[in-house]
Amino acid sequence: MKKIIGLVLVLFVGGFVLMQLVPYGRNHNNPPVVSEPNWDSPETRALAVRACYDCHSNETKWPWYTNVAPVSWLIQREVDEGREELNFSTWGQSGEGEEGEELSEAIYEGGMPPAQYLLLHPTARLTDAEKQALARGLTAIGGTEGGENGEREGNESEGRDDDDDGHEENEREEEDDD
Ligand code: HEC
Prior knowledge:
Elements: H1 2-19, H2 42-51, H3 53-56, H4 71-85, H5 100-108, H6 115-120, H7 128-141, H8 149-152
Helix pairs in contact: 2-7, 5-7
Bound molecules: heme C.
Heme C binds near residues 85 and 86.
């Protein structure tokens, strides 16, 4: 029996040590801050920094446990996905998550910031009044619905490049040059 317990322990510790060798999750260089929103007030920014910036900006704070696998893997994925959806440090470049309505919905319906994050970061928890203030501020800086640039641009590009779309009949004559 003792042998089995010893073996399990060795496997467990060994596995843990091996996990630490996986390179994923240890690249904690924050990319540069390119462009921030035009904040409506310093308070809105402060609330966003407190509750959202660890995952939605290039100013992520990386405490010691973010270096310990397997926690580091989970956190890396959160940050990568979070930045992809919405990044306050590259504002105006991705568009998607920057809609005012979506931003405030994320707080009330989208479960942002995520519960497991709040367990580790109690200071990121917002009071009802702070939620309201942040939602209002984010609505102010966010765009409105229908911000898809492509739809409105009336460039019906006249100079269609491809000749062979059936329009130019006279080109066909070249075919019968036997
Ligand atoms: C612990 C990391 C983390 C924190 C903190 C966090 N988010 Fe997120 N957020 C994510 C991840 C991961 C996604 C993408 C996957 C998903 O939707 O759950 C996301 C998605 C979003 C989206 C895209 C739409 C949606 O709901 O899926 C918005 C908007 C958003 N977050 C807003 C916020 C706001 C506002 C805050 C601060 C109040 C915040 N988030 C805090 C990790 C985080």
